[in-house]
Each structure stands twice: as C-alpha cells, then as structure tokens.
Amino acid sequence: MLQNTIGGGKEKMRWYFDTYGWPDAKPPNHPAVQQQRHAFINHLHNEKTLLYKKLITDGHASVRPGVLRLMDEAHQRGLKLAICSAANAQAVQLVLHTLLGEKRLANFDLILAGDVVSKKKPHPMIYNVARDKLAVQPTDCVVIEDSHIGLTAALHAGMRVVITHTPYTASQSFQGAAAVYPSLGDIHTHHSSHIVTVNVLFPELAAVTSR
Length: 211
Prior knowledge:
Mean pLDDT: 91
Number of helices: 10
Number of domains: 2
Helix content: 40-55%
Shape: globular
Structural class: mainly alpha
Radius of gyration: 19 Å
CATH architecture of the largest domain: 3-Layer(aba) Sandwich
CATH topology of the largest domain: Rossmann fold
Order of helices and strands: HHHHEHHEHEHEEHH
Distance between the termini: 48 Å
Strand content: 5-15%
Largest sheet: 3 strands, parallel
Low-confidence stretches: none
C-alpha cells in the first residue's frame, strides 16, 4: 500500500499512524496533540535519514547497471538532463555526490528534490516544475522511473515513461509505460542482454542519425 500509493517518507509515516493508530493514543483534534505528532514524525524521519546516510557513506549502496553509461551518452548527445526525486534535499545531495561525483553532476541541467514541491509523487507537480524550468514540451521528455508511483506522476505530466523496476517494485503494475526493463543494461556484464541507449529512448533521434 505504501509503495503503490503514498509518495514521500513523512507522508508514508503519517498515513500509517493515521490508519493503524498513533503511539500516544490521544484524541487527535487538540492542537497540542497535532503538534506532538508533527514533532514525532520529524523525529522519526530524522532518525531514518541518519541511518540512510550512514548506509550511503559506508559504501552499502551502488549505482544500478547502465545508469552511468546512459547519463554519459545522453550528455554527449546534447540532451537536457534532470533528476526529480521525492526524497528530501539532504538525502538527494548525499546520494548524488557520493555515487555520481561532481563531474557527472555538472552535466545535469536541473536537480529537484521533494522539498521544492507541496505535492509529491504520484502527483505530477515535480515533473511539471522540471518541464517549466527546462522550457521543454512534455511530449519531448522521457522519464526513467522504477515504481508505480513514479510512473503515475510522469504519465499525468504527459511524459513518456520507461520503467527499470527494482526487486521491490517488480510486481507492481506498469500499465502505460513505453517499456519495462529489469535494468538499463551494461555492456560486458551479466546485465548485457538488453542495452537501453538514447536511441532506444528516443527512436526519432535514431532515425535522424541513420540518414
């Protein structure tokens, strides 16, 4: 339920406690109670973020197959690149700086974290903001997502979506996606059975370059 319908860490926590009960078990209408619950959610989220950051800095996370290859190719082909994440800015910056490095980050035209929008995925707001800031048409965009929530957000923004699901999201519904892959694929690895390139994402570019 949380994976498929609720975007954002704090939003997931609040939905869970609203549905199954809060630890304080007090009447929810009193302002003091709401203030306590707000502080409780912030505390939980801060603790979660600290654990998450430790996993990243300790080297337990790695970039998924094909991501760096496709980033580099897209930049070399002159495409506009953006990252639109539902995570908070602190977590996003740590992951990107640790796993991508400054040189690759400099190739991106835009990086948006969940903090910049009032409505998170599956709402399309973050993709609409990216569209406006990049001054592009939604039909010219291809979004790479890994979940049903992300797919829904991008489709509602009028963009094409390619899914590279994770083991956690593989069973989700991806109806409406232009294509679904287990990864973007890497050359000379066990992920080489399919290679998602810029030409795969933008067939119209492949047609132009083949003339």
